[in-house]
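Schema walk-through. Below, the input block comes first and the output block second. Nothing else is stored per chain. Lengths vary across the set, and this one has 209 residues.
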Amino acid sequence: MKKNKQCISIGACAPAPLWGLKQIFLKQYPDIKINSTISEDNIELIEAFNNHAFSILILDYPINEKNIISTKLFSETLYIAVRPDDPLSHYKSITFEQLNGTNILLLSKTGYWSEICNEKLSESLMLVQEDIDAYNALLKASSLPTFRTNITIPKFKKIEDRVYIPISDKEATLSFYAIYNKNDHDRYSIIENEIRNVPWHLYRNEESF
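--- output ---
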């Protein structure tokens, strides 16, 4: 790989697809440097991409332009994770309206998910933690609900005693796309096949969400 290709810069609207792409690139290009940014502002991400600050974007919709490739990655659904003795634990599914007013423990830098939760759960107290260790300690010591997704549950169900309840609102399910210039097709075409092989049970071992 040429020297100017030794870095991949990714702008993403959510953490899970970003983690997945990192796994793909680190496997394919083990010596490469990866820079990444998570933002809930898609317009800001697109502007940065157009100004060459990012070589690849992750958005919750495709960009349909002739010089752009948009590859669907997967769909992700938000779940609320509660303890077995929580009054919500018997729900088979739940809505944001039903959750509104429930205090929830939340890790920062979750992009779109932070935005939608702030919008839909305006009566809830979001106990946002910047520090991962603090988040994990509070989660273990309290009965507070937290969020998981269908992508992250395979990891967390092995290490926590929680009931996972899907949120049924349409805003709680997103399809994510990897977006890049056609000129970079040779470099990024591996995404379409390799996204199926990402080891989600190892998701963000150094972090939590």
